[in-house]
C-alpha cells in the first residue's frame, strides 16, 4: 500500500496522468468538479495507468480540493 500526491486539473480537453519532477503527479481530467465526478474519473485514470482495479485506488484526503492524497493498494 502506498500513497501518492496528485494535483488535479478538471475540465481538461483530454484525460492524462503525468509524473512531475518533484515526485508529485499531475492529472488532467475531462470531468467537471461537480458531485465527485472529477474524483471518480481520477480514480479510474490512476487505476488504468497502473493496471489495477478501481477498488484498489481511493482518494484519502483532499476530496474537495485540487491537491489530493491517493491511496493505492496493490
Give an overview in words.
Helix content is 19%, strand content 36%. With 74 residues, it is α+β, with helices and mostly antiparallel strands. It has a single domain, classed as YggU-like (Conserved Hypothetical Protein Mth637, Chain: A). Strand 4 (57-61) and strand 5 (67-72) form a beta hairpin. The radius of gyration is 11 Å and the shape is globular. It starts with a strand and ends with a strand.
Return the structural class.
alpha+beta
Terminal residue distance: 6 Å
Going across the biggest sheet, name each strand in turn.
2-3-1-5-4
The CATH class is Alpha Beta
Total helical elements = 1
Outline of this structure?
It contains 1 helix and 5 strands.
Helix-strand blueprint:
Elements: E1 2-9, E2 16-19, E3 25-28, H1 37-50, E4 57-61, E5 67-72
Keywords:
74 residues; alpha+beta; Conserved Hypothetical Protein Mth637, Chain: A; 5-stranded mixed sheet; 1 helix; 19% helix; 36% strand
